[in-house]
Design a protein that fits this description.
Blueprint (H helix, E strand, L loop, with lengths): L23 E6 L5 H16 L3 E4 L5 H11 L4 E5 L13 E4 L6 H8 L2 E5 L3 H12 L3 E5 L8 E4 L2 H9 L2
Parallel strand pairs: 1-2, 1-5, 2-3, 3-4, 5-6, 6-7
Length: 168
Amino acid sequence: MSKYKKNLEFEMDDMPDRITPKKMVGVIGGARADNEIMNIAEELGKRIAEEGYVLVCGGLGGVMFAACKGARKAGGVTVGILPGRSKKSANRYVSIPIVTSMSHARNAIIARTADILVAVDGRYGTLSEIAHSKALGKRVIGLYTWEEVPGVEQVESAEEAISLIRES
């Protein structure tokens, strides 16, 4: 690259060729969950942040809320891909709200954005995210979710999920 300085206060050669992004971990799961699942999701979010990964989710309640809460309390960054038209719909632990106005169609964006996904509990919306992720060739880890879906690697704890994420 040539030394181009017109109206610039730095040398272009000093620019990095590429900024290496952090691993983005999708946490997918139900908008409603019982206390046991909420605790598991919060622990998972905490562990994701401690590893220095960015947490990506649907940005609403239930598993998404708990995972974001765990990540933020551990100093992490959370991205919420929101279904509606307002940033205000994001749970209070979302660092970066992304408004889509796409309802459940946003599940494809979550699947595409994440490098690897962890499904925690969940219903048909979670199944949709799993399907999108598998169709894209993404690795999906399952915690108490859709055990009969081929290609979902089932684990029993946040620690086991983090171990699989680390090796990806």
